[in-house]
Amino acid sequence: MRGYGPHFPDSHARQIRLDCFAIITSNGAGMSDEQVVEQDEKAARKAARKAAKKGMFKAAVAQVESIAQTQVKEGDGFVQHVYDDYETYRRVQEEGNKAKLKAQFVKKTHIFFLAEWLAAQGCRPGFALCHGVRRGKEQAWFRKKMKGADVIGTDISETATQFENTVQWDFHDDNPEWQGKADFVYSNSWDHAYDPAKAFRAWIHCLKPGGWLLIDHTRGHSPKSTNVLDPFGATRDATARILAEAGQGLGELGPVLDRMADPDYPAAVLTFQRAKA
Length: 277
Ligand SMILES: C[S@@+](CC[C@H](N)C(=O)[O-])C[C@H]1O[C@@H](n2cnc3c(N)ncnc32)[C@H](O)[C@@H]1O
Fold this sequence. Notes:
Layout: E1 17-19, E2 22-24, H1 33-65, E3 71-75, E4 78-82, H2 86-99, H3 108-120, E5 127-131, H4 137-145, E6 150-155, E7 166-168, E8 182-187, H5 196-205, E9 207-217, E10 232-234, H6 236-246, E11 251-259, E12 267-274
Parallel strand pairs: 5-6, 5-8, 6-7, 8-9
Antiparallel strand pairs: 1-2, 3-4, 4-10, 9-12, 11-12
The protein binds S-adenosylmethionine.
S-adenosylmethionine (SAM) is lined by residues 93, 97, 104-106, 131-134, 138, 154-157, 170-172, 188-189, 192.
C-alpha cells in the first residue's frame, strides 16, 4: 500500500522532508503520493480496458467461426481466408461489426497527423471518403481538422446508419456517384477485404487527378493476424506491391509515412497518388 506514512516501498526512490510536522514523499519523478496513486490507477484502468477489448475481439472471432469456415491461402507475403461465397463474407463482416460495435481502432492523433500531412501536400479537400469506419470516428476527426470538408465514411454493416456521415456500402464496389470526386480516400479496414486489389482499385477510381489514397499498415494487418473475421493480412512490402498493381495506369505509389514510434497507434501509412490530369 502506498500513501503518507513511515514506509518506504523499494520501487520508489523517496525524498522525505519533515516540515511543520508534515511528511512529504515523492518518487524519482518528483510526484506526490497522490500523483503516484493516480498514475497507478490510470495504468490499471488502461490495462483493464485493453483486456476487455482483447476479450471482445476474441469473442467476436469465436462468434463468426461458429457461422463460417474459410480456406486459408498463402501467397508471396500474404495470407488470405477464402469464404464459401459472398453471402457468407457479408454475414461474417456484419456479425463481427455488431460484436465489436463499441470498439475504436484508429486514434484521433493519427487522423490529425494525416490531415496535416495532406494539407502539407496542398490538399484542400472538398469531398473525401473513409472506408470501413464502424462508428464513423475517422471522418468526424478529418472534418474537425479540415474545416468545411465533406468527408463521409462507409461500412458494410447495417449499423452504418446509426453514425453521422456514414453510409452502408461494400467498399469493393465502384460507386458511380463518387468516381473522380475525392481529394483523398483513407482506410485501415482493407484487412477485412475478400479481394484487397479490387477494393484498392475501386478506391483509386474515386480520386480526383492528384488525389491521395492513404492505407494504414499496422501489426494487425500482418499475415499472422488473419482469421475468419480479418481475412487478409500482408507484409508491408506485399501490401505496397498489391497497391501498385491495383493502381497500374492510374497513378503512382507515394512515400511511406513512418508512424511506428507512435505508442498509441504504431503504423506505416502507404500512399498512392492518382495521376495529375
Ligand atoms: C477493424 S474495423 C475498423 C473500424 C474503424 N476503421 C476503426 O478504426 O475503429 C473494420 C470495419 O470494416 C467494416 N467492413 C468490413 N468489410 C467491409 C466492406 N467490404 N465494406 C465496408 N466496410 C467493411 C467492418 O464492418 C468494420 O466495421
